[in-house]
Amino acid sequence: MTSKKIRPGRLLKAPESFLDPQFIAEVKQHGFDETRRAFLRKSFLAASAALTAAPLGEALAAPAQGDPDILNLPPWTTTLGKPVASRPYGSPAKYEMNLVRRESPGLASVSQASVAFTPLQGMFGIITASGLHYERHHQGWEEIDPSRHRLMINGLVKRPRVYTMDDLMRLPSVSRIHFLECGANSAMEWGNVAVPTVQYTHGMLSGSEFTGVLLSTLLEDAGFDRKRGQYLLAEGADGSSMTRTLPMERVLDDCLVAYGMNGEMLRPENGYPLRLVAPGIQGVSWVKWLRRLEVGDKPWNAKDETSQYADLMPDGMQRQYATIQEAKSVITSPSGGQKLIDKGFYNVTGLAWTGRGKVKRVDVSFDGGINWHAARLEQPVLPKALTRFNIDWVWNGAPAILQSRVIDDTGFVQPTYTQLREVRGTRSVYHNNAIQSWKVAESGEVSNVQV
Amino acid sequence: MTSKKIRPGRLLKAPESFLDPQFIAEVKQHGFDETRRAFLRKSFLAASAALTAAPLGEALAAPAQGDPDILNLPPWTTTLGKPVASRPYGSPAKYEMNLVRRESPGLASVSQASVAFTPLQGMFGIITASGLHYERHHQGWEEIDPSRHRLMINGLVKRPRVYTMDDLMRLPSVSRIHFLECGANSAMEWGNVAVPTVQYTHGMLSGSEFTGVLLSTLLEDAGFDRKRGQYLLAEGADGSSMTRTLPMERVLDDCLVAYGMNGEMLRPENGYPLRLVAPGIQGVSWVKWLRRLEVGDKPWNAKDETSQYADLMPDGMQRQYATIQEAKSVITSPSGGQKLIDKGFYNVTGLAWTGRGKVKRVDVSFDGGINWHAARLEQPVLPKALTRFNIDWVWNGAPAILQSRVIDDTGFVQPTYTQLREVRGTRSVYHNNAIQSWKVAESGEVSNVQV
Predict the structure, then answer these.
(1) What is the Cα–Cα distance from B340 to B440, expressed in whole angstroms?
(2) I need a surface site. Which of A6, B246, B271, B349 has the fewest CB within 10 A?
(3) Which of B252, B173, B170, B249 is nearest to B210 (CA)?
């Protein structure tokens, strides 16, 4: 803290450079404004002559406004600008209009039972912009009137409950950062390369800070039967009435009944006003537009647990209730469909996550898995949340194959496609957590490959 | 993982309840659909008779669609819903349209040199929804063409640089969660209660995950003079050419030159495409639309460091370069302008933060500071980031005064207004971190008071 003895109201002394004798002489001769402009122009151009990087001239290419002696400055530097609260609720810059979620053309015959993928290739950090959160619906989405929405808790409970949103939002609240991944993320890639970009290979993945009531708080409020209540059913209020069984032991510690996402209420496409947040568990169980929780003593085998979300194994058996999303990672940039403009330095970036706990390390290979290098993990590394990794790379112009491989804190190592198919075959739909490969050609074009 | 021996293609065995002999008999008599409906209606009504909580009937009040025997279900349960990617970039629910940032009426004579406040009263967690991030501009805001934007680094450097956005986004990247608070947050309250709601008393506060290049990386790239380069100047490209001195020792470790905010590019109102992120330092120094960094050996005493952002002390001295935002907290709900509907349980929630490091604890008082109770801190507690606190409260209907008080990990205790004014007088504008009091009347109405 600097404190100067100054009489109230007096400005502090001007810096010495403005008392340069030459400057003072010029002011006397030409007047203050003209001298200042000349002074600045001289300094600016002198500096630009010394510059070694990108063309400065482009920034000055805008036509001058008014006085031709004024430096060519862009309009945003010379104009008043827009008022505060021009947009009471803001939006991204118009220049970012290509960064949107997209349905994969032809993926589904009915767009209400389809997917809109998050554009991971253009995103940063571990928080997904809410407007870009992926969507997966089975019978479309609607804007639910929160005053009419109810949450029922019934089954093996002493005190069946029906809560309004007002009720729920008065209860003890928690906030947690978690990833959400659909069990069908990367589904297309089981047999072979199917889609070209990371948006489509991995875009059923997002991360948010969720706020709500702990599931345990609600179950205790309802007096659930701890001994017999081994399973929880979660049911949604949408047209598909999504209904899922969850094993009680998996959800009692860290599940939330959430209303908040990244500081505000959930978005309608993400379950407004209420959804289940089941950390580490596949997305379908994070029932949106949550209307009912039932405590029971055996699985319900609902329609979305039998005809779907079960894995067909090589020996003809069904693997049911896989539940936990296993450790997985992907390089989000450079990634399929992008093009490296020139050789040289790049920050290679991506995401890693695990439903079992924390990411322990991420290794990156530039030669298709022969040599591995430890990537930097951005802090904090949180349980059952996205982890952002970054690593330096100097591209020498030769073909390369980029991969990332995560190890989580249980010691689980992300498998290659070869390893995964040995266990699971090639005809699964769900739970594909194989290592992703991106090929960089000499042209700089990046494409999806499997090695 | 449960594995059942099932021939491929066969559904799993139906749960026993559906093999109830009475059910089977009814199916034979009435057909499956009718039986199922009757079965569900019976169970549902039986359950609702046992309910002790809020009126279930309201949820069923919607007129029935079609078959009068069908349970009265809301339209979103019985209709197809909207397709995925209806909104390639999503928005909040229409029911949330009142949660917006607002300019305080009459605060400024020119709305380009004004403030739009974040509606803290309706928000959660430590991440601020980007569309609700507060605004503080001195000459309005514009959407800058990122292809024309440049960052210059000059002054006491061996290699002056001019970077394009493409250049910057290839450099090693980091992601960090930090709070941003204007030095003038709570300015109106120095003399007495001035504004009614937490949006206006504390709303120049937001928290985000920022992504960008470490300042140190850029300064090293430019070869800055470590010995003589004791000060950094940051200059913006907006009409106000915001220019700020920062002491090098404060910024070299954790400042970012950031392009990303909450997973996507900065918003135009928040400095798109580039801003300085100076963790823990007052908001004005987080120069938006950052175009130049200069390394120097003494402060620049720019216009926004002399005529503004200095504190007038009781003895007539100016306190300059206060820089660090000291520990501060506020209860965001219940807060001024809200009304408690009835007695009973409430989750009291708020935010705490400190520019010195981490929040260590937050205490809450319900009786104007006589008794204090430790609040829960949501995890993770991060350095120079918002911390969300929550605490249980049972309101008995009597008048109450709610306060929160933070202690940070340097041991600094948030002061009362009395304590703060003893040191700083009553005629400051900036750096007001006093304890905030909210009075709850018997009517349940909450108002801003100073005790």
Answers:
(1) 8
(2) A6
(3) B173
Q: How far is B449 from chain A (nearest CA, A)?
A: 23
Cα–Cα distances in Å, from B34 out to A145, A155, B21, B29? Answer: 30, 23, 16, 10
Instruction: Report the residue from A86, A92, A318 with minimal CB separation from B4.
Output: A318
Q: How far apart are CA A80 and CA B142, in angstroms?
A: 9
Q: B122 to chain A: nearest residue by CA?
A: A264
Nearest CA-CA distance, residue B222 and chain A, Å: 10
Where is average pLDDT lowest: A140-149, A319-328, A350-359, B239-248? A319-328
Q: A5, B317: Cβ pair inside 8 Å?
A: yes
Beta carbons within 10 angstroms of residue A153's beta carbon: 25
Selected for mutation to probe chain B from A19, A52, A124 (highest B CB count within 10 Å) is A124
The candidate with the shortest Cα–Cα distance to A366, out of A411, A415, A331, A321, is A331
Please answer yes or no on whether A82 and B112 come within 8 Å at the CB atom: yes
- List the single residue in B with minimal CA-CA distance to A171: B347
Q: For tokens 């805001």, what's the residue?
A: B141
Residue B297 to residue B295: CA distance in whole angstroms: 7
Alpha-carbon separation of residue A384 from A414, B44, B447 (angstroms)? 15, 36, 40
pLDDT at A30: 64
Q: Which residues of A touch B312 (CB under 8 A)?
A: 8
**SS3 call for B189:** helix
Lookup: tokens for B372: 């204090």
| Whole-angstrom distance, CA of residue A191 vs CA of residue A388 | 28
Asked if B306's CB is within 8 angstroms of A94's CB, the reply is no
Task: Label residue A31 by pLDDT band (50, 70, 90).
Answer: low
- pLDDT: which is higher, A288 or B12: A288
- For B350, the closest chain A residue by CA position comes to A173
Q: Cβ contact (<8 Å) for A149 and B59?
A: yes
Q: Which helix (H) or strand (E) holds B397?
A: none
User: Which candidate in B164, B213, B246, B264 is best for mutational testing of the A interface (most A CBs within 10 A)?
Assistant: B264
Average pLDDT, chain A: 86
Q: Which residue has the tokens 């209540």?
A: A229
Does residue B171 surpass a pLDDT of 70?
yes
Mean pLDDT, residues A71-96 taken together: 93
Neighbours of B374 (CB within 10 A): 11
The answer to pTM > 0.90 is no
Report pLDDT for B65: 41
Shortest CA gap A450–chain B (Å) = 26
Look at B263 and A58 and tell me if their CB atoms are within 8 Å. Answer: no
Domain ranges of chain B: 10-82, 102-319, 328-449
For residue A320, give the amino acid letter: Q
Q: How large is the average pLDDT for residues A214-220?
A: 97
Q: Of the candidates B78, B102, B154, which has its C-beta nearest A239's C-beta?
A: B78
Distance between CA atoms of residues A6 and A29, nearest Å: 32
Angle between helices A21-30 and A32-49 (to 10 degrees): 130
Smallest CA–CA separation between A30 and chain B, in Å? 24
Matching residue, tokens 């403030």: B115
Determine, for residues B81 and A128 on separate chains, whether the beta-carbon distance falls below 8 Å: no
Kindly list the residues from chain A whose CB atom is less than 8 angstroms away from the CB atom of residue B263: 123-129, 132, 207
- pLDDT greater than 70 at residue A424: yes
CATH class of A328-449: mainly beta
Contacts of B13 in chain A (CB under 8 A): 301
Q: Please indicate whether, in this complex, the C-beta atoms of B2 and A321 are within 8 angstroms of each other.
A: yes
Structural contact between residues B42 and B20, judged by C-beta atoms closer than 8 angstroms:
no
- Cα–Cα nearest to B363, from B410, B299, B438, B413: B413
Q: What is the pLDDT of residues B204-220, one digit of tens each?
A: 999 999 999 999 999 99
CATH architecture of the domain covering A102-319: Alpha-Beta Complex (3.90)
